[in-house]
Amino acid sequence: MKLTILGGGGFRVPLVYGALLGDRGEGRVTEVVLHDLDAGRLSAVTRVLAEQAARVEDAPRVSATTDLDEALRGADFVFSAIRVGGLEGRAEDERVALAEGVLGQETVGAGGIAYGLRTVPVAVDIARRVARLAPDAWVINFTNPAGLVTEAMSRHLGDRVIGICDSPVGLGRRIARVLGADPNEAWIDYVGLNHLGWVRGLKIAGRDELPRLLADPDLLGSFEEGKLFGVDWLQSLGAIPNEYLHYYYFNREAVRAYQQAEKTRGAFLADQQARFYDEVGAPGAKALDVWDRTRAEREATYMSENRETAGAGERDADDLSGGYEKVALALMRAIARDERTTLILNVRNQGTLAVLDHDAVIEVPCLVDANGAHPVSVAPLPEHATGLVCSVKAVEREVLAAAESASRTTAVKAFALHPLVDSVNVARKLVEGYTSVHPGLAYLK
Predict the structure, then answer these.
(1) In this structure, are 74 and 159 located in the same domain?
(2) Range(s) of the domain holding residue 70
(3) Is residue 302 annotated as a catalytic residue, yes or no?
């Protein structure tokens, strides 16, 4: 089987390849094609992958190209992890938003809208090319904002594009662990949008154990989300929110923390990864060792401003292992081998949440088999969650409309309608600021 990775020079590609190296089953991926616009980054990542495969018999062969059509032809799976504008663009997203006193995070609020506006046209072009050059391929989207981009691509690929995220997986794993259960045997009742969802139940042998967790302050305060949101707030919600909801529930504190930080997350990662690619490119460099060290630093500092605001301390060692690559592998195996499994994925609604239309992409448990991912029926969200989901989905639709029509006015509307942007005038200033620094937004007229 051939897997094409778009954004193949990206830092996290070795995670995906490492997962493939551990798969010895029939019908496994035997060929990996890396595509990226930056030949230097491709070369660096290829070196890391070569060291990963050095002691693995019959490892999937790896090739690299800057030609998108060449990369797509004949692909069975296409893994999309592109970053339009690079990390420098992410840093600009943060800077412009924070200057206006609003959040610039890459998937939430103003930063997420800016990132979406410049990513959607590129993602749509990729979807059209896949439909033409690899019509039988399944696209696994990890490009952020993942739900928005998956919905944009689904308009051209239907249900053959599936979005993945490691946040729900990590959340479910932490809850199961604190309850003393095997995460692989637990049913996680999770629903929402990407980076905007809630765990409302966790069933083990048919029994919902979440009430036991919510009733025990010591247990509830012992893991990441309990520390981040606080025991009282989780008990008030009666659910465990995705960590990204901290930006909504504690927005003022989060914005202040980001404004006071020495560097924004994007600026930190831009500097860190520039050092990584320089080090790996040096003669005699041990590429895999450099990557391992850089990754450990990256994971340890994840959402550090939010944890500092909440007094949550450092992340637990068990939470530093990522996880999206395992979701991607499980998804590919389920489809390619008809190994039926349940995964939390970003897929078209298809009536799962009555408050959203059929084509709205949501994040929900899915049964996966050779025919793709099928969302599982879930109970309605409580009113507070329904309001937030509907509000953010409306913003996503305005972003898609702005990208399709190239309308600056519609882009302003997208910013202004977001619950974390508190003024139409601020929305106008954001559009002015972003179009002045992002060449990828020059299409807005």
Answers:
(1) yes
(2) 2-86+95-163
(3) no
User: Is 194 annotated in some ligand binding site?
Assistant: no
Q: Is 195 known as a binding-site position? A: yes
Per annotation, catalytic residue among 17, 115, 190, 244: 244
What's the average model confidence in pLDDT over 348-354?
96
24 and 158 housed in the same domain: yes
Assigned domain for 205 exists: yes
Question: Are 12 and 145 found together in one domain?
Answer: yes
Looking at residue 320, its pLDDT comes to 44
**Whether residue 240 is found in the same domain as residue 259:** no
266 and 244 both lie in a single domain = no
One domain, residues 259 and 232: no
> Does residue 79 sit within a domain?
yes
Residues 296 and 194 reside in one and the same domain? no
| Per-residue confidence (pLDDT) for residue 64, from 0 to 100 | 98
Does residue 425 belong to any structural domain of this protein? no
Q: Which region among 55-69, 92-106, 132-146, 295-309 has the lowest average model confidence (pLDDT)?
A: 295-309
Residue 373 resides in a domain: no
349 annotated ligand-binding residue: no
pLDDT of amino acid 310: 66
pLDDT for res 55: 85
Pick the catalytic residue from 36, 76, 93, 166: 166
| CA atoms 2, 3, 8, 14: torsion sign | negative
Whether residue 200 is annotated as binding a ligand: the answer is: no
Number of domain units in the chain: 3
Residue 319 reports pLDDT greater than 70? no
Question: For 247-262, what is each residue's pLDDT tens digit?
Answer: 999 999 999 999 999 9
Domain boundary among 200, 233, 249: 249
244 included as an active-site residue: yes
